[in-house]
Every structure is written in C-alpha cells, then in structure tokens.
Amino acid sequence: MFAENLRRVRQRIANAAARAARQAEDIDIIAVTKTQSVQAIQAAVVAGLTTLGENRVQEWDSKRSAFEGSGIRCHLIGHLQSNKSRKAAAIFDRIDSVDSLPLAERLDAAAGELEKRLGVLIEVHLSGEESKSGVEIKELDELADGIIGSDNLDLLGLMTIPPLIENVELVRPYFRQLRELRDGLRGPRRPELPVLSMGMSHDFEVAIEEGATEVRLGTALFGARLANA
Predict the structure, then answer these.
(1) For the segment 144-186, what is each residue's pLDDT rounded down to a tens digit?
(2) What does the pLDDT look like over 56-110, one tens digit per residue?
(3) 51 near 30, Cβ under 8 Å?
(4) Which residue, of 5, 138, 162, 188, has the fewest CB within 10 Å?
C-alpha cells in the first residue's frame, strides 16, 4: 500500500513540476510521521524515503531508537517550546519551525553545547489564524539576521502552513508570498536560502508550482489518520 501511495505521489510531483518548468528531482518529500507507528515508518524507509518530519519532540524521542544507523534524517516540523530546545537540538537533524529570536538563541546555545551545527528554517505566519505559529512578516528580517549572526545555526530557508481551504487555488497566494519573502531576504551579507518548505497532502501540487523545494506529506503517503489521532 505505501509503495503504491508513494508512486502516485511521485507522479503528481512530476506533473506539477512539469507545469512549472521545473525538475521533479529538485523537490524533496518529507514524510510526516505524526501518530504513525514504527512499523509504518519502516515501510516508508523501505520504500526509499530518507527524510521524516515529526511534530513533537517527545514523539520522535520515543521512536528514534528503531532507526539508528538507518541513514534517515528527521526534522521537527511542529511548534517548539523553548524549554524543549536542547532536547530538540540533540535528536533532530533540522528544526523547521523557528519562530522567534529567543528560541533561535536557545537553539544556538544548545547546538554549541552539543558541538553541532544545526540547520533551521524560519516558520512564517501568513494565515492570520491565531492557532498557527510563525514569525510575523514585520519581524522576519530581524529574526533572519539573528540566526545568520549566530555561532551554531545555519539558516536554510522558510516554511509556512497556510489555511486549510478546500479550493487549493485560494491557497496559492500564500505560497507565492512565502517565495517572495524568501527572495526579499537575499542580500550581500546573507546566505542563499535554498529551501521553501510548503505544501501538504491537500495542496502540495500548487505549492510546487509556486516554488516549493520540500513538501510535507502525511495522509497522501500513509492514508487518513484516525479521527482521535
């Protein structure tokens, strides 16, 4: 089942990339493993996926021992509380949801203690929904410069979670805005920001058309979660 789901996803990625005159090989899949069992995640690894995305620090901490030595990478894609920053820096390969300068400073200190360079993405709040995390646009430059000036963090790009709207064309402006914000951060004293992490199971094709380099897919790969999961 998983292998067939992955085949269909890759075909959809290829079709979306072709519409945007892009190469499918330039778009990475992050398998969102929230609430998934170790066995389900192992099926993803066997099928060839090498990057996972977990929403919670404690959930990945309970699973990760099953994948030691497998070569997979796991990103934290959910909101990170500051008091869990050291643990997150230790067990994740990348933090994709940095949304404040104090959090970045704590991750920088934690990575320094661990003698580790830690890749991060800035999560940008574009939806206007109070339930969504992310830095406000007016504070994006300050946060970017703070991360760039840190000792142990590598700023790689931006991430966003748009509103869940059935008509995916209404989501397109959010993806376009994130790309434009990323492009606006480019400058002589700033690194290239190659990563745009945007698009999930219901809207990833539109995200690819607007420049996504990574899509975060759960349902499209694993099937629908249980209602109480």
Answers:
(1) 999 999 999 999 999 999 999 999 999 999 999 999 999 999 8
(2) 999 999 999 999 989 999 999 999 999 999 999 999 999 999 999 999 999 999 9
(3) yes
(4) 188
Distance CA 51, CA 53 (A): 7
Residue 59 to residues 8, 81, 91, 174: CA-CA distances in angstroms? 28, 14, 11, 29
* Phi, psi (deg, nearest 5) at residue 73: -115, 145
Largest Cα span, the chain: 49
Task: Round to whole Å and give the CA distance between 39 and 126.
Answer: 35
Give the span between the Cα atoms of 34 and 54, in whole angstroms: 6
Query: Half-sphere exposure of residue 184, counting CA atoms within 13 Å on the CB side?
Result: 10
19 CB-near residues (< 8 Å, 6+ apart) = 209
Q: What is the distance in angstroms between the CA of the first residue and the CA of the last residue of the chain?
A: 20
- The answer to whether 179 and 196 have CB atoms below 8 angstroms apart is yes
Q: Measured between alpha carbons, how far is 28 from 114 in angstroms, rounded to an integer?
A: 28
Residues 6+ apart with CB under 8 A from 111: 89, 117, 118, 152, 153
User: How many other β-carbons are positioned within 10 Å of the β-carbon of residue 77?
Assistant: 28
Domain covering 2-222, topology: TIM Barrel (3.20.20)
The CB density around residue 101, as the number of other CB atoms within 10 Å, is: 16
Q: How many residues can be counted in the chain?
A: 229
pLDDT in the model for residue 228: 45
Tokens 């606006």 belong to 184
Report the alpha-carbon distance of residue 51 to residue 4 in Å, rounded: 18
